[in-house]
Amino acid sequence: MRIRYSAPGRVNLIGEHTDYNQGFALPIALPQRTFVTFDPDPSGVLSVSSAFGDGPVRIGLDTVPGQVTGWAAYVAGVVWALLNAGIAVPGGTMTITSEVEIGSGLSSSAALECAVLGALVAAVGADLDRIEQARIAQQAENEYVGVPTGLLDQLASLFGSTGQALLIDFRDVTVQPVRFDPDASGVALLLIDSRARHAHAGGEYAARRASCERAAAVLGVASLREADPSALHRVTEVDARRARHVLTENQRVRDCVAALASSDFAAVGALWNASHASMRDDFEITTPHLDLIAATAVHAGALGARMTGGGFGGCVIALVPGERAEVVGDAVARAVRAAGYPAPVITRTHAGSGAGP
């Protein structure tokens, strides 16, 4: 029985580093996907081959954190997390291919986890809803791979829908579709890959999360979702700025949903600009390279632009009047080249479908 399953990468339209603070975010699934082909067998070992690395990696079905490293750790982590959930999976041969660029901030890791998870769950016929699947995939990344991400990436990959953004409330763990079809209003969504690769495991992501947790503890709240902005003077200057980003970003997500309800993409663009400034000045997760891309896009006619993803590299998204898309792309390419950075990869994209066979 051959099983095929795939899952998409994602772009977060707005709501960065809010997931582990029990706030709000508004991602879309991308058209680019990771594909898994799985042939189960009774061998008791999972043999995994991928374009990500050399030769097949053999993963024991009783694997534990630390045994498998590199890209295959994400696969092993899913096997381990499923077993923790009481679901024993079969061995077999698995082949993985992907259209989601690694390190670009488009969540290639969640696409990999969710595609592998879908194939393994299909092989045993387990009945898991998408929230449960997201938690299992997150556990694989957090506890096996060792990257302290929130649920945003997994939920976006699993719940994605064509022409829809996803309003995620991380306190209640609910997902609400929000129409997102800028093309219908003559507006293009540009995805600008800086080609500057980031690595969450490098410690900066974990440092931001720890800062938010310290601020919440000082303020006596379970998460920054409940924090009182007027009380931020009680925490250190750096932690206060981190918390201020989270609090203002949550409001920007809600405002963005309201603007999308009336297809007011000028208002959405202004919120994206404010979000980028907050990530640059308060959360300090952008780079001069990303700042240049966002500022150039806006100067050339974009309604708004912001870094998307965990930070320190990756992609910028821009909302651009359709007739200005080429002009904006050319301006960004020229500015980046003049600054000595790698040539960006600029594509026009849209909200795609979620994980599935």
TrEMBL record:
Keywords: ATP-binding, Carbohydrate metabolism, Galactose metabolism, Kinase, Magnesium, Metal-binding, Nucleotide-binding, Transferase. It comes from the Bacteria. Transmembrane segments: none annotated. Residues 74-160 form the GHMP kinase N-terminal domain. One of its GO terms (biological process) is galactose metabolic process. The keyword Transmembrane helix does not apply. InterPro entries: Galactokinase (IPR000705), Galactokinase_CS (IPR019741), GalKase_N (IPR019539), GHMP_kinase_C_dom (IPR013750), GHMP_kinase_C_sf (IPR036554), GHMP_kinase_N_dom (IPR006204), Mevalonate/galactokinase (IPR006206), Ribosomal_Su5_D2-typ_SF (IPR020568). Residues 257-335 form the GHMP kinase C-terminal domain. This is Galactokinase.
